[in-house]
Write a structure and sequence with these properties.
The structure holds 2 protein chains of 2 kinds. Chain A is an alpha/beta fold. Chain A has a domain of 264 residues. Helices cover 50% and strands 9% of the residues of chain A. Chain A has 32 helices and 16 strands. In chain A, the strands form 6 sheets. Chain A has a 5-stranded mixed beta sheet. A 3-stranded parallel beta sheet of chain A has the order 8-11-12. The two termini of chain A are 33 Å apart. The model of chain A has no long low-confidence stretch (mean pLDDT 94). By secondary structure, chain B is of the alpha/beta class. Chain B has a single domain, classed as Alpha-Beta Barrel (TIM Barrel). Chain B has 9 helices and 11 strands. Chain B is globular, with a radius of gyration of 18 Å. Classes of the chains: A alpha/beta, B alpha/beta. At the A-B interface, helix 26, helix 29 and helix 30 of A face strand 1, strand 4 and helix 2 of B.
Chain lengths: 789, 266
Amino acid sequence: MILSDRVKKLRDQSLNAAETLSPERALLITQFYKSDESRGLSAPVMRAKAFEYLLRNKKLYVGEGELIVGERGPAPKETPTYPEISLHSMQDLEILNSREKVSFTVDDDVKSIYEKEIIPFWKGKSNRDRFMDLMTTEWHNAYNAGVFTEFQEQRAPGHTVLGYKMFSSGFLKLKEEISKAVSELDYFTDPQAYDKNEELKAMDIACDAIIMYANRYASELEMLAATEKDTERRGELLKMSAICHKVPANAPESVHEMLQHYWFIHLGVITELNPWDSFNPGRLDQHLYRVYRKQKEEGSLNEKELFDLLGCFWVKFNNHPSPPKMGVTASESSTYTDFCLINLGGVKADGRDGVNEMTYILLDVIREMRLLQPSSMIQISRKNPDRFIHKALDIIRTGFGQPSCFNTEAIVQELLSQGKNIVDARNGGASGCVETGAFGTEAYWLTGYFNLIKALELALNNGFDKRTNTRVGLETGYAHDYKTFEDLLEAFKMQINYLIDIKIRGNNVIMKTFAEWLPVPFLSLLVEDCISSGKDYNSGGARYNTSYIQGVGLGSLTDILTSIRYNIYDNKNFTWDELIKATDIDFKGFEQMQHDLIYDTPKYGNDDDYADQHAVAIFEIYYDAVNGRPDSRGGIHRINMLPTTSHVYFGSVIGATPDGRKAFKPLSEGISPSQGVDKQGPTSVIKSASKIDHLRTGGTLLNQKFAPQFFEDEDSYNCLTALIRSYFALDGHHIQFNVVNADTLRDAQKHPELYRDLIVRVAGYSDYFNDLGEDLQNEIIMRTEHEGA
Amino acid sequence: MKGLIFSVKRYSIHDGPGIRVTFFMKGCPLSCWWCHNPEGISQQPEQVKVAEKVGDEEFIKFRQAGEYYSVDDVLEILEKERPFMAESGGGVTFSGGEPMLQSEFLLEALKACKETGYHTAVDTSGYSLPTNYSAIIPYTDLFLFDIKHLDDDKHEKFTSVSNTLIINNFKMILDSGRDVMVRIPVIPGFNDDDHHLEKIKSFISENRADNLRKICLLPYHRIGSSKYKRMNIPDRMEGVEPPSAERMEELKVFFAGTGIKVKIGG
C-alpha cells in the first residue's frame, strides 16, 4: 500500500495542525442551559435536547479532499470543552496555553468568552464542583496525599466499545426498538415506568438529532458540489452527500458507508460528553470484512479506493486530541491520545480464527499511516496464524509502539469469569490501554488509579502522610513496631482495605451524580440493553456494568517489600532505624546502602520466587479489597493493573523507598519490573509477571523495551512469536514492545526538533517522545534495553 | 559432581534453534587473541572488577565469575524456561570457555537433559580428546563447531593450540550424523584474506553433508575490550576494527557458494 497524494496531504495537515481550544461547544451548551427550552424537563430529555441543540448549531467542516466528514470542533484539532463536567478557570486557560507538554492554544477572544460567558454561568455548577462538595474529609485527604485519582473529575464515564449490532443497523431501526420498548412499559407493576419513558423519549430525540446532523452534512456537501469545478471531486462530493443522507439513519452497505456511519456515531458520543477513551469501533476487521468481501466480489471497490477511504478515516481520529486536562487528571494522563484502540484478529463469535483479509489490510494501513491516533492492537489467539503476528512485528520493529499484543484466550476467560456469556466474551477485546470489555454490551468504567506504594508508606508511618502533613491512613503503627514481616504485611492490608473503602464510597456517590444529572441518551442507544431496559448508560442500563480501580506500582512495591524482608527481617543487613534514616534524607551520605539495596537485593522481574512471592501477596490483598464490591449502578468493582502516566504522578508524592529508589522518582508501570532491574532477559520478566493471576483482572500491562537487533531476521521473528505465545500460554494478558535504542532517545532529548515523528510506547499507549515530560523521557531511556547480540 | 559455570543466558536465540538457555562453562585450553569472554578462560572462579553506578557515584566492586552448578541446578534453571523452549523448539546449549574441558560434568548434564526431553547443543572449539566427543555424541543433538584457521602455524600463533586435533574431531562428529553448524569468526587480519577464505570454503565443500546444517559467520566485535581493561589483561586486538556490514554481506554470498545455508551471527 502506498499513500495517495490525497491521504498524504490530509495526514500532513493533521500532523501540522496546532491543538487549540475551541469555545464553540462551551458557548452552545451555555446558551442552551440558559434558554427556556431547557427548563421543566427530566434530566434525560434535557440532555437529549442539549445534544440536539449542539448538533443543530455546531459548525460543519469539509476538508479539501476528505472522503469522510465531520469534526468535533470547527476544524481539525480545534478542541471543545465541557463546562457541565468541569470548568476551566482563567488560570487554567493560561496554563493550557503556556505549558510545555500537551498544550492548547487559547487566544484572547476565547479567554474573553470564558471570562464573560462561560465562567459566570458555570462557576460552582459543574459536576466536578458538585461532587467535590459531596466527598468526605477522608476522601479529600487521601486524594490530596496522592492515594488515588478520580477519573470522573474532568471527564465523563466512558470505556465502551461499539459492537457489531451498530454496524448492521441504522438509527431508524433503533427508533422502532424504542417505540416497541415504550409500548411495552408496564405502568401497573413497574414503579420505574415513568422514568423509563423519559429515558426512551430522550433516546428517540437523540436518534433524530444524529440523523439531522448527517442531513446537515448531506446538504452542505451538495452545495459544495454545485460550485466545485473539478469534475472528479464534484462526483465525490455528491456521492458523500448521498451517503450522509443514507447513514446513520439506515444500515450501511458499503465500506465507505460503514466508515462514515461509524464516524457520525463517534462524533455523537464525543459531542454529547467527553467520555474517557473517546469512543472506539472495536473489532474493525470483523466489522468491515463482510461488506468488503461483497464489494470485492461485485468489483465495486478497488484497492486504491479502499486505502483512500481507510486513510481518510485514520486521519479523522488523529484530528481529535483528548480534551484539555488539568491538575491531577493531566498528570495521570499526560497525552493528546484519546485512547481509541482498534482491535484486530482474535476469534469470531463462533470461536473460530478471526483473522481475515481485512486484518492484513488494516495492518498495512497502520504501518503506512503511522499516526498517534487511532491506536491499534492485535488480539492473538492460539487459533491465529503466525503470519499474522509476523506482519504485526514488521510494524512493531520500526519503533512505532503499535500494535500492542493481547491474549484472546485470556480476554475470553476474564470475561467469562465475570459472568458474561460466551458469545459476548468472544466479541470482546481490550480498549483504552489494556482494559478488558464485552464490546457493545458493557459499560466498564475506570474510576481512578490507586497508589499501592502510598498504602505501604502509611503503614510505615502510623497512617500519617508526611508530605501533606495529614493523617490519611489508619493508625496501624510505625515501621519498628512490626516484629515480623507478616505483621507489616497485615498492617499494609489494613491500610489497603481502609483506603479502598474511602475510594469505593466516593465512587458510589460520583456515579450517582452522573446518573441523576448527566445521563447520556445518545451513548445509551449504542450499548445493549439500554433500550430494552429503558435505562441510561450512566444508570446501569448496559447488559454488564463494571467499575475498575487500577492498581499502580506492583513492580516497585514488590521490590520494596522484598528489600524489607531481605535486608531487615531475613538477613538483618540493616535495622529499621538505619533504613528509615537513610530514606528520610534521600540516601544522602548513605550511598553505600543505596548501592546494596539496588545491586545486592533480589528484585521482581528475574523469575526469582523470593521477590516474586511479594507480587502475588500484594495482588491478592488488592484483589480481595476491591473485587466483587457493588457499585451504585448495579455493577461490580474489579481490579486491573495499568498506569497510563500515573506512575510518574504517584512517584512524585512518594519519598525515597527501601528498594533504593530516590524520592519523587517514577514508580514502576503496569506489572512491569522497576526500570532497569530485570537483568535476566525477557523470559524471566515474563515468568515473574505471570505469577499473578491475570484471569481474575480486567487487564494487566507489561511493557518490554527491545533493541532493534531482536527483530533482525526470520529466526528472531520466530523467537519473538514464541515468546509472546509462551507468555499467553501462561495466561499473560498483554505485552507491548518498545523498539528503540537508548542513544537514539538521548539524542532526541537533545535535539527534539529532529525527532518530531518519534513515537514510543509509554504504558498501554504510544506517544510522541517530544510530548512526554522529561522525567518520563528519562524513565523510558532507563528501562532495560535487552541486548540482542 | 559439579560444573564451573560463569554465566547463564536466558532468551538465548543465537546458539542453536529456538529460545534456549546457554550455560557458559568456565575454562578454556585456547587463548584466542579476540576472545570476548576472557573471564571464561581460567578454570578457577575469579574476582572480576565491575563499576556499579548509583546516581553519579561509582562503586568499584569485585564480583565472582564462576559458580559451581550440579546437574540438578542446571535442570532447575531449564525447568523455569520450559514454556519458551516448548513453544519455540528451543533447548539448552553448553558453551564456554570450552565445555569439553569439563567433559565428565558435561556428559552427565547432557544425559539428564536428553532424558528430560530437551534439545541439546554443544558449542565447542573442537579442541578435546576424540573419546570425549564419542562419549557425548549420543546425547548431543547439535554441535556448534568453530573453524578458525586452516593453517596450523597461524592457528597456533593466534589461539595457542594446533588445529590438527580440531580438524579430525570435526570430521568425526560429521560422520556421526549429528547436526553440525560451522561457526567461523571473521577476524580482520587473521583469517579473512582471500586466499584463506577460499581454503575454508573448499574445506567445507569437501566435507559437505546433509547434517552440516549451516555456516555461521561471526563478525569480530569489540565487546571484549572493556573486559580486558577491567581484568587488567593486555588487549592484543587494539586498533582492529570490526568488519563492516557490507563486508559481511559479501562473505555471506561467498560462502553460499558451498551450497550450505549461511547466516551472519549465531
